[in-house]
Amino acid sequence: MSVNFVDLPSPNHAPRPDGVAVDILVLHYTELPLKESLDILRDGARELRVSSHYVLDLDGTAYRLVPEDRTAWHAGKSWWRGRESLNATSIGIEIVNLHGDRHDYPSEQIEALIELCREIVARHPAIVPRNVVGHSDIAPQRKVDPGRRFPWKMLADRGIGLWPRAGARPLDGDFHKALQRYGYAPPLAVPPREIVKAFQRHYRPSKVDGMVDPETSSQLAGLLDPLGRAA
Predict the structure, then answer these.
(1) Does pTM top 0.85 for this prediction?
(2) Which residues have a catalytic role annotated?
(3) Strand order in the sheet with 90-95
(4) Which of 109, 117, 197, 206 is the most exposed, having the fewest neighbouring CB atoms within 10 Å of its CB?
(5) Looking at the predicted structure, is the pLDDT value of residue 229 above 50?
(6) Non-local CB neighbours of 177 within 8 Å, separated by 6+ positions
(7) Residue 169 and residue 221: Cα distance in Å, rounded?
(8) 44-66: b (≥16 Cβ within 10 Å) or e
(9) Which domains does the chain have, with CATH numbers?
């Protein structure tokens, strides 16, 4: 399918640092209806100005707010793969959904999202599958979006992001060090249980309790296993 784009520029952006590649794609939910979300993301008078590169409506319409060669202000205090403050190297998509733990994402919206992500990744080949993340992955103590109903596996099956290799044995050794090796913040920076909950929210949404059980450990192993889909 082709995505229907509407240009609605936001004044809230800045130059990207020279010589820095865009290598992270961050998916959010708005938690507000479309109009309120667009009003906030395009408000240049707010004390704390925010923005994203795109807002994706329920029907799949994509509103372009900030050019991809500019920094949008969507990630805030964040961490992934040893780096902090990820706005400068990321692209942010706000997906209209009132709360991804309670409201499903319409199929039209997800189909448009997959196509939009494919286009973005094609323009920015440094966005490897491991770097397609949710806001909760990069800010686990503050954020839960895009929520437990977000279809991460469907996206991975369509070539966007990763999903664990099935049947992996639970990890040996320190689970939190392995989480950090995959990309998550170190447990000294964020409470360990919140990091585990963020991982479960992405890869085991049926039970998000922050406990390192065998299933959670097997899923992380299935991402790190060089024979699996994370290779």
Answers:
(1) yes
(2) 94
(3) 5-7, 62-64, 54-56, 90-95, 24-29, 132-134
(4) 206
(5) no
(6) none
(7) 7
(8) eeeeebbbbbbbbbbebbbbbbb
(9) 5-162 (3.40.80.10), 164-231 (1.10.101.10)
